[in-house]
Design brief:
The chain has ten helices and eleven strands.
């Protein structure tokens, strides 16, 4: 039997997507690039998002369908099927933040894993590298950005870009990072007692009524868990992707999985840029070659491999990270220090994965 593109296409019409219940050709997943060289067949399949959990399954189903149609006349392996990501269709309405190139949510399944510390240091590391960076503290009930940047007494003013129709807030700027937090508008010692709708409306104002200007990256320090605020943010802005922060501890990983599932839900559909393992190990200053895995070893890295999600790196449990965070001087400021290097490398991997998603 001779091989020809129509034979391959007809075979792929028998491959039904396990979730969407339609064949992959009808779903528009087959790229018009079927190539045949002797017995070898290669082609591309288009998926809706990076790290689609159906990639391996559909590849296997496609190979089986082609071999069933062509028998011994075909040679095809998983690496002969290339994966492409469907281009996002631009919304007709104007984007909320047209001058921001990448909007990235930094999330954690539970509190206490160091998400805000990681976010603050990534922001500083990116700024040091020359990127235009913004940081939005979306943790309405537990804002920590003012403390981590030693700007608790700062009070944002109206921007010069304000008009009679619309008043804009000028973000606080420190270490080259433009910042805004609900913590700048409330008494630090008072609890914020709001229902979900009030918190979501406050977040919307922080996003849309701020003069962010031109930014390469807007990092959003999300509240822990999955809540109304997360859903409100996804519906408000077009997120480039999300970063999940977790410790190696089993209880933290269990909640991290919930966060991953939320972003990958069909109604949310936000790519996971990668996972960061914080507090990965402890190394005493007097024993620099020793590593003590207080919260378990490699749990977040193993989760990344299991979920086919990029692993962005490990951040150790180091006293200076906490001390500098409390003092408002993130350790990433000293980019030549071991921790400065660690966050600089983490920022580099974040940039690389973000560019891959945006391609």
């Amino acid at each position: 039997m001779s091989l020809y593109p129509k034979l391959i296409e007809d075979a792929l019409r028998t491959v039904v997507h396990p979730e969407k219940k339609e064949d992959i050709v009808k779903l528009g997943m087959l790229e018009d690039d079927i190539r045949i060289s002797g017995k070898n067949v290669t082609f591309s399949l288009i998926f809706d998002r990076v790290n689609d959990p159906m990639v391996a399954t559909i590849k296997k189903m496609s190979i089986n369908a082609i071999k069933a149609a062509a028998g011994d006349d075909v040679e095809i392996e998983p690496n002969h099927i290339f994966v492409k990501i469907r281009k996002k269709v631009e919304k007709e309405e104007s984007p909320v933040l047209p001058n921001v190139k990448n909007i990235i949510a930094i999330s954690s399944g539970k509190g206490g894993v160091g998400k805000s510390t990681v976010t603050a240091n990534i922001a500083v590391a990116l700024a040091i590298k020359g990127y235009k960076v913004g940081l939005l503290d979306a943790d309405i009930f537990g804002p920590s950005v003012p403390i981590m940047f030693q700007t608790e007494d700062a009070r944002p003013l109206l921007s010069d870009e304000s008009t009679e129709e619309r008043q804009l807030i000028e973000p606080i700027v420190k270490y080259g990072v433009k910042m805004l937090s609900i913590g700048y508008f409330v008494d630090p010692g008072s609890a914020i007692v709001w229902r979900g709708g009030m918190a979501s409306n406050a977040l919307k104002q922080l996003v849309t009524d701020t003069a962010w200007g031109d930014l390469d990256y807007l990092l959003i320090d999300m509240p822990p868990g999955t809540s109304d605020i997360h859903i409100s943010l996804v519906s408000l802005v077009s997120l480039t992707g999300a970063v999940i922060v977790s410790t190696p501890q089993k209880v933290a990983l269990a909640d991290a999985i919930k966060g991953i599932n939320m972003y990958q839900n069909d109604k949310v559909n936000v790519p996971i840029i990668g996972i960061v393992e914080n507090m990965a190990y402890f190394t005493p200053a007097e024993l620099p070659n020793n590593k003590y895995y207080i919260f378990g070893q490699g749990g977040a890295q193993a989760l990344a491999e299991k979920e086919n999600i990029p692993f962005l790196g490990q951040i150790p449990l180091v006293q200076s990270i906490r001390e500098n965070g409390d003092a408002g001087t993130p350790v990433a400021l000293v980019d030549s220090s071991p921790m400065g290097v660690a966050f600089a490398e983490l920022a580099d991997r974040l940039v690389a994965e973000t560019q891959r998603i945006s391609w």
